[in-house]
Amino acid sequence: MRFSTCQAWSNSRHSPRSLARRTGSKCHCKSTVDPADGMRRRWNQAHRGKHAGLWGVGRTLAAERVRLSPHLATLWQYFSGAEQQAMDRQLRTERVGFSSMRVPLAMTGLAQLERFDAARLTPSQRIEAATVRWFLQSELRTAPYEDHTFNFNQFRGTHLDIVWVLTTAHPMRRTSDIDSWLARLELFGGRIDEGRGRAQAAVDRGLLPPRFILERSRVQVAAFLAPAAAQNVMVESLKRRSASMPDLDAATREAAVARATLLVETQVRPAFQRLGQWMDELLPRCGDDAGLWRLPDGEAAYAAALAANTTTLMSAREIHDTGLREVARIEAEMDRVLRGLGRTQGSVNERFATVEKELQPPPGADPRPALLARYEAYVR
Fold it and tell me: The pTM is what?
């Protein structure tokens, strides 16, 4: 069936209604229309009209991916009109990871690519199709291991991502942007609780973070909680970014700040406090080993990460052995060059360090004229 993967999305464990069934919560979809219906309609449009063909599929695939993440839609202001306005009021669900959410879309994209006869594509189109296919296949390979990276890590954790969205990515151009900002802030605490539930489910599967990651993330949570609500980074950001809005009167701004302070005090800070307590309880169970090998399916997760980041299906051992061979080859070449310069005493590293030291400009004087003169001599 042509759109079986779209139907799979509506019935999958990642759809809004499926999430609601699994978590016992209400589905907050504003429409009773199956989300697969909209996707099905847009894919049909990708194969006809002025945007038909491979370019249309790529265009539709990109838009569907952004629709899964209001954060990206806001950062790029990808859509227009009512759709973009609706995106700017949402925060991405944290019950499942973003990679897992993209699995049905990747399946659909691969199915759409199969509809094209490679023999009828131009050389550049074949390269484009192969690139997109590799990207989608990579997403399918890595999605099962998304929780191996711990969703409250110190670099891209949920507790950091939402703060970034609200303090940086969310636009502040007009009064309506403040309304959508407050709508997002009202969702913030719930998203932290969702993320904590997801992290606990990962821990229950044996996916514990190393101690140093949890300790650093715990420091970040404590820093967020340190100021009172009125001085919290969320409220301070609203004050600062709304100060220069031309259509915002003082009373409206004051009311918005008061509403933000109340939400931080009653919803956001309690969620961060619960998160901090959970981290404190988890910390004694964490060790110092950071390798994926220690986790369930760790070797498979590492292999998927290698494939995604190197575009090769070589194993970790094969990559390591390749590195050793390359180091040996490069050092042999360096030894040949150094011997040609009369540098025969000591190891390659020692001889290279000696040459490097000798080539440094003398201390005190401005080295730039001499360096420029040297490079001019090289190119003559």
Answer: 0.78
